[in-house]
């Protein structure tokens, strides 16, 4: 026994066997080492004070998770930053056509009668293992000829103490084609602060990324090739929801966030009932993963969309190399 209350460090199999079930789960996650730190967590059933050994070891995977909170929602829609396949020599994108970067990758324009969920904000609670990692909000608005997507990610609780994350995304896309027109991001992740802008020039088949390090004042500019049409890491959230999503169907499409274009595939696995804080829903489960590049084989993601014309994403889960993130719909705000 160490510290106050039920705080303890496991240093032998005998010590581990004496722990209560919730203590075993906690120590299994974090291990033990000298130089432990007492850490309170009111969400535990005993509301006791536990020893979380090696704070740096505990923080490392959480830091990697939190730094991707703002990207996590699009990641559930298969928006992973991976390298593209060889580009086909195709003419510039024309309205209503289909853009390809591989034998099957394509951005499919929405049907003429498709209704975007304008004025709705999806509010999610984000969980990492036993902890509340923060909140994520994604909303869509019509701005005349464009659609604007806004995504907000904020860390909370334990996560915010260890590594604060406050990110803001904004993206615009053409509602007739689903081609992304550009995106901006303001990120505050731990000690890092950056402003990023990405524009897509389809006539030149180029993406251009401008990034400013707000701490050091350094500027970075990167240009990459793109296919005739791409979605981005924010718009991809809505692109997947616009597809028919019939069980057994698969969709492969290109994604770009200013780096190399990604080709990812989403598989519609089946239907099931899901209960989240916002309610209980009949849903369609979709799994997505990278086809190539540095993240191929390093993780898979699932999204549960309501089994109706709205295809509201009510739950999402990402199983990655550093852990699992779970997003559960808290409510839908209308503005």
What does this structure look like?
The chain is mainly beta and 335 residues long. It has two domains: 13-53, no CATH class; 72-334, no CATH class. 14% of the residues lie in helices and 43% in strands. It has six helices and 16 strands. The chain has helices at residues 13-17, 21-30, 55-66, 69-76, 157-162, 236-242; strands at 37-40, 49-52, 120-128, 131-143, 146-155, 165-173, 180-189, 192-201, 206-213, 219-225, 250-255, 262-276, 279-290, 299-306, 313-320, 323-334. Strands 10-9-8-7-6-5-4-3-16-15-14-13-12-11 form a 14-stranded antiparallel beta sheet. It is globular, with a radius of gyration of 21 Å. The model is unreliable at 1-17, 19-63 and 68-101 (pLDDT under 50).
The largest sheet has its strands arranged as 10-9-8-7-6-5-4-3-16-15-14-13-12-11
Rg (C-alpha, Å)? 21 Å
Oligomeric organization of the protein chains: single chain
Uncertain stretches of 5 or more adjacent residues: 1-17, 19-63, 68-101
Instruction: Assign the structural class, choosing from mainly alpha, mainly beta, alpha/beta, alpha+beta, or little secondary structure.
Output: mainly beta
Q: How many helical elements? A: 6
- Overall geometric form: globular
Mean pLDDT: 74
In whole angstroms, how far apart are the ends? 52 Å
Q: What's the helical proportion of residues?
A: 10-25%
């Amino acid at each position: 026994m160490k510290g106050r209350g039920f705080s303890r460090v496991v240093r032998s199999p005998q010590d581990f066997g004496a722990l209560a079930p919730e203590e075993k789960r906690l120590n299994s996650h974090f291990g033990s080492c000298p130089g432990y730190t007492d850490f309170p967590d009111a969400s535990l059933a005993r509301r006791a004070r536990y020893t979380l050994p090696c704070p740096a070891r505990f923080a490392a995977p959480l830091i990697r998770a939190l730094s991707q909170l703002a990207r996590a929602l699009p990641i559930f829609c298969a928006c992973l930053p991976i390298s593209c396949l060889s580009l086909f020599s195709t003419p510039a994108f024309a309205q209503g056509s289909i853009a390809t970067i591989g034998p099957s990758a394509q951005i499919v324009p929405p049907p003429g009668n498709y209704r975007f969920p304008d004025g709705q904000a999806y509010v999610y609670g984000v969980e990492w293992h036993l902890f509340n990692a923060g909140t994520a909000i994604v909303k869509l608005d019509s701005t005349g000829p464009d659609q604007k997507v806004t995504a907000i990610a904020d860390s909370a609780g334990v996560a915010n103490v260890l590594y604060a994350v406050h990110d803001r995304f904004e993206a615009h896309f053409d509602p007739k084609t689903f081609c992304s027109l550009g995106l901006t991001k303001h990120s505050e992740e731990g000690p890092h602060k950056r402003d990023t802008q990405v524009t897509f020039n389809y006539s030149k088949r180029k993406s251009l990324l401008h990034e400013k390090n707000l701490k050091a004042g350094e500027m970075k500019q990167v240009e990459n090739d793109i296919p005739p049409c791409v979605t981005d890491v924010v718009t991809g959230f809505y692109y997947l929801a616009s597809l028919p999503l019939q069980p057994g169907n698969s969709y492969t499409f290109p994604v770009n966030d200013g780096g190399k274009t990604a080709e990812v595939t989403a598989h519609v696995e089946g239907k099931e009932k899901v209960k989240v804080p916002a309610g209980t829903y009949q849903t369609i489960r979709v799994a997505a993963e990278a086809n190539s590049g540095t993240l191929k084989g390093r993780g898979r993601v699932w999204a549960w969309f309501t089994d109706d014309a709205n295809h509201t994403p009510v739950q999402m889960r990402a199983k990655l190399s550093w852990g699992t993130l779970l997003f559960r719909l808290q409510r839908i705000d209308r503005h």
